[in-house]
Fold each of these.
Amino acid sequence: MVFYLSNVIFAAAVALPLFLTLNGQIAYLTMRSEIAQHPSYAWWSGFRFHDGCLAETMRPSLNSGFGPMLDNVELLFRGNFNSFGLTILFAGLAYIFLMAFLNGGALSQFIEDRGFSMQRFLGHSGHYLRHMSAFLTLQGLVLWGIYRGISPLLFSMIDSVTVASVSAPLVWFVNLAGYILVIKLVFIVVTLFDYARIILIAEKKTSSLTALGLSVKFVFSRLQPMGLNALLAGIAILMSTIAGTIFSIIHPSGLFMVILSFLLQQVYLFLLISMRVACYSTEVLLYQQQMAENQQVKKRKH
Amino acid sequence: MKLKLGCWHFILLGSVAVNSADYSFPPPTASYNITAKLDAVDKRIDGEEEIIWINRSNRTTDEIYLHLYLNAFKNLSTTFMSEVSNRFSSLPDYFYSVCKNGWGYCDVRSIAVEAPGLFERMDVMESLQFDPIDDGNVADETVCRIRLPGAAAPGQVVHLYISFTSQLPHRAPRTGYYQDYLVAGQWFPKCGVLEEQGWNCHQYHNVSEFFADYGDYDVSITLPKNYIVGASGVLVGETSAGAGEKTVRFQEKCIHDFVWTASPKFRVAERTFEYVDLPPVKLALLYQPINQKYVDSYFDAAIATLKHLGSWYTPYPYSHLTIVDLPEKSNAGGMEYPTLFTTDVSWQVASGSQAPMGVTVHECTHQFFYGIIGNNEAEHAWMDEGLTVYATSRCLNTAYGPGNAWKMYLARDSFGLPTTFKHVHKDQRDWIVENQRERGALDFMDKPSWAYVNYPAYRNNAYEKPALMLWTLENVLGEPVFNRIMREYVTRFRFKHPKPQDFINVVNEFSPQDMNSLFDQTLHTPGVLDYAVVRVISQRDKGTKGYFGRGAELALAEKNDPGTWTSQVHLERQGDIVFPVELLITFEDGEKRRLQWDGKESIKIFSFTQKARVEKAEIDPDHNIWLDVDVTNNGRYREKNHLAAFRWGVQWLFWLQHLLETAAIFS
């Protein structure tokens, strides 16, 4: 709930100025009924041109059930988080930092497995903030390296291989494979840093790099961590597919339907955020189980 | 493959008879007999040409100007390449392609002239001089002139005998080769145009296109047997040239350029266009095997263009038309040539994008302006591109209706996941307005292409602004009147190289009102047109008090009529262009009143005092003025309603929340 509320409050704070701009722009227009029904292309292109800043992030894809989600998935593939302007970029960075702060508390909560106390939660969050920030920075650098170094290199290699090909489907599938490889790399990096955070807290390490080293050893020495994350990602994709389908069916043109759409969107987001938190708890559980098994094996050997 | 090739030849040969129909072509000015041989490995062409040039001006000349356009790709110092590197913040792909993989040039090996009754055949190679007529760039060799041994008076015929070697550049715009595919455009020495003011022969610039006299072409090309060839003109013969080669011969009357394309990988399809009173046209499509699924789309688009433009303006005068579907990576892009145009389509397209119909209709529409009118594209690009964009959007709207907004996810070269947003309709003109809004203040329309401040200014003033001006004219004058104007313009200036004033004269001749003001503001000054309703207010009439009457009836009184309202509608001219507009006022009791405003003032206030308040006010309620860059501010209610903002605020909030959550996986 803390994570969800953070998300709502944070997004609402950024959305409010846009809503006021929108309202000031549309509320009196004779086109407002048309705009309430479906996005008018003429209105949309004029709005983003005249109002700039956040208005530039308004686009027809938001009208589609899957549009908002697909736009964000594309960001994961390409890493161009600044493509929506500085306001969104800074909001995103601040939000990630806030999440990094909360992660320390959440992971401690799962590792200690005691009843929830806000005081303890925030205390742990503050205690591990330094390490979580270090992980965040390091992870950011690694991902930046992937998006700005490895990915262009990979696609440049793809281009050099496919430049002589006149088979468009072949070129298309090779490019698709390139994107899949990029997302796989991102997935591995995220998994490594997830377990580094868990190891740091569970093993009470004082060095983030040591924890990261142990995480690399843990993740690459067994299949379960990747498997678990793949499973959780699969569930999230399934959930998003169902949600996107529902959003595609609902046409929010009247007030009631807009409210219904809003509520369903919030339910979906709550579930998605819960999935992320559940991901942390299952990762903690998996790590603890694996460590316990290791201990037993060692004892047996002794 | 052989069977298909055979069919292709049969079709083309069959079309010769149709071509012999009488189409009142004017007498030729510059005719070309060319024999060329392709070195398929190096993509080099060795050619011999005879130009039969007739001085149809009223001035005497002792020199002849020639275009050698392939020299634009000769080195980095040419005007074309310099402009490319100066005008683009990031250099286009073809720049590197030409630099790294293959330069292009047109080298004149020898040149002789002969003028019956004036002088005998004589070698004039020594007199050849390059003339960078536009920018003085001595490194540019795209224009040359030769000195004649005698002065050619009006009506004099001059024969030019030229030997040349043309190297096609790699993946260049409008010409070049890519692997074993080639499109030979601007590949042979071609005469400039002698006008009353002298020779009109511009260098090859980055954005400008072409201008030449009409003439008859007879071109023979020798190339490998397995190459499938398409060209301007009708294939009149094919003979074996030995050693795995063949010679194909094409002829056409009254065209002003000649292009040919060849590749062993082309596939061929054909159709015949037939429609009530219009003459039949043989259509041939040379397409990439991968684009088999688009064959019908290509033909449908070409047929729709021939049908609509033929009915609206003038019948397509040639017996055949060749559509060339380019390889996706060729870089040549959609381009018009006489009786042949190139077009392309991506392997994956969004269903709402109307690909490949959009490009196909556009290039096919050029056949009616670039092809039949033949105005100077370098000096007055808007007369070709602008009219073409206007007629293209008209044709697409008529044939296909509005499209949908779409997006190509993860788009990169030859890759993308197309997604159509079905509920977001996009009129064919919406993108034109969008571009005009962004670039309208850049420069003005009637300017040589190379003189625009930058590429967006060229695009806007050659393509978008004139198209919107024409749409505005059509709506203001009415479709029947404007159709008559266009038909008269095309018919009157068929094959005559008209200038802007010719078009303006035709408009004013048929228009009930003088349109010079609109032309002046669009052709000669930068700026956009934008009118807005900025405020609609009403307040109850406060009545009046004081002394009223005279003499014995003079008395202190207070007069109130609680049922009367005073409403005000505030209008603004937010753009530079002044144009008369209509205002529709709707009152609460349902009364509607139409008013006229000359649009001259920056601010205009209309007041109304009556029982009903103004409910809403709309400028240009029938959306006639397509030059208006923002139609959303054209109408305003007196009272606000938050539903639309709420609906879009919610959608945007959801996207942002999801974005934050997506980003949070990195935390």
Amino acid sequence: MTQTSPTVRTTAIMFAAVFVGGAIGSLLREAFSAQIPGAPILTATFGINVVACFILGWLYAVRHRVHAHVVHLGAVGFCGGLSTFSSFVAELERLAISNLWGAVSAAGLEIAIGLGAAMLGEGLGRRLHDQQVPE
Amino acid sequence: MSQFYLHAMFGLGGGLGAVLRHWIALRVRHDLPFATLIVNVLGSLLLGLWVGYLGGPVDMGEEEKRLVFGFCGGFTTFSSFAYQSLELRRQRTIMLAAGNILLSLGLCWFAFWLGLVMIR
């Protein structure tokens, strides 16, 4: 039997959690992207990014109360895999070919809504958790 | 080619992308969110190259396409970008938060475009 140090084990579990979360998040995004046909703005990618921002905000609100691996699985892996910046700019570039200012406005709008969703998720997560565990 | 296999390739790409993103985040320790900026710019460049490459006359299996598309999505992140921008505004200044947003959007968009035109 080989002896593995706790640090090596923790690191291995951490990366495994990130891998599993990233794979599940990516698959969910793939499934939802296929469901909704491509619109010029407010696309499936945009909707999925907003949902990921909300979940990430929520997870960060409670991150000190859950195990670190939950953060690795949920925040780093799942939310990171679910949300995407590369498809976001790819869709903006596609839109910019026909309407540059429309694309710039869409970018601003989508980022603003994403920030709002993260704030909302964080606020709700904090509030609900504080109700459950009075301090 | 079974659908299950293709989804598995996408998921594998996404998982590997997430692992590489986290590895870079652990390496690039800075009080400004440079790690997220780096992965988003690199991921956007890769997607641009890939989309541009696939737009040409190539004979590429569907599984390779899915693997790289999955990787780009798992590697880049919008949610961490948004959360870190909020943190910058709260803990530092609104100018840094605005700078992070403009720099991320500008550099990633440019990187994607650059990838497209480089390969064409």
